[in-house]
Amino acid sequence: MSSVLERFLRYVQIDTQSDPNSATFPSTARQKDLSLLLVQELREIGIADAHLDEHGYVYATIPSNTDQHVPVVCFCSHVDTSPDVTGAGVKPIVHYNWDGTDIVLPDDPSQVLRIIELHDLDQQIGNDIVTASGTTLLGADNKAGVAEIMAAAEYLQAHPEIVHGAVKILFTPDEEVGRGTEHVDLQKLGADFGYTVDGEAVGTLEDETFSADGVRITIHGVSTHPGYALGKLENALKIAGEILAGLPKELSPEATTGKEGFIHPVQVEGIQEKAVIQFIIRDFTTAGLHEKENLLQNIMQEVLARYPHSTAEFTVQEQYRNMKEILDQHPKVVEYALKGMKRAGLDPIQRSIRGGTDGSRLSFMGLPCPNIFAGEHAFHSRLEWVSVQDMEKAVEVIVGICEEVANLVLND
Ligand SMILES: [Zn+2]
């Protein structure tokens, strides 16, 4: 048994909720309460360079214990929790040797974990499940990952017979508000590649994410007094409505799954003279994004053709790209992870995420970075849970990846 459970229980009781409406960085000062504790605990296990930088990132190095050249691997998790559900006053409960019956959370008995409603829960009978008490989230997203990386670091420090290269640890703030990589210093980190430890089911590895753009359509109609509008008024609100009505239903989030992309309006605002529609465009390829953008632009032109005195601007903003574009150039990064999982006795499941991760951004910033499981489930909700056994497996996988990186290089 590692220290992962004890660490996890300690970390989730520290409120680290981030705030999307804050202009500061990190968005909330309380995130540093956990980060400072992590620095102190890293130093206690002998990791001398552990420190918190001025932006709230924790950097640390487990030094190499071989004089051979082994690539530098980084493990990364985020310390903040979702703004969607409160993270203040979390009271974690361990349900030891769970027998599969409903878990009623004591502080709000309307919150019940049922095996038929929560996916993957049916795999956990006989395991020890950790939940919150009913009024808060648990924070397994991503403190499970934080605790696993910490426990793996402690294990490596206590087992010098395990040969490994330098291992970098990175704990980031503000992932949940989309700013987790904003002030990361990859030069200082000095890793060749990395893994975010922020995935769901045990054994999963995610090496594909959406590619994402934002589109903004700004419509300039022709405004008049409505009483004297005959033959003159071209109402921007109605033009916006016609564009929305023209969207293909089969390319919506509610009609797509797997590797299918979509066109999704997220905001409309306006008056009769001017209206703005914001969209998010998602696909797994850049070409697929461009196809959807062209389609949307054609819909806009068709509607505008019916309003000869109105104009519109169509602007595209790049958001992030599928990390697979980068990972395909570094196939060993995924290979190490799959081998590390097999070494821990798991049957790895490689899959894609219909969303983005900090790893997508890190990959394009120069640190190829797939996502491996942390065991967190039902995150951003009061039913959030994680099992102790899955966390222990994640610790084994982190140690196993370090061993595989050294092995594959030293035996090459
Ligand atoms: Zn997360």
TrEMBL record:
Its cofactor is Zn(2+). Belongs to the peptidase M20B family. It comes from Dyadobacter sandarakinus. This is Peptidase T. Keywords: Aminopeptidase, Hydrolase, Metal-binding, Metalloprotease, Protease, Zinc. Pfam families: M20_dimer, Peptidase_M20. Residues 209-307 form the Peptidase M20 dimerisation domain. The gene is pepT. GO terms for molecular function: tripeptide aminopeptidase activity. Its EC number is 3.4.11.4. It is an enzyme of class 3 (hydrolase).
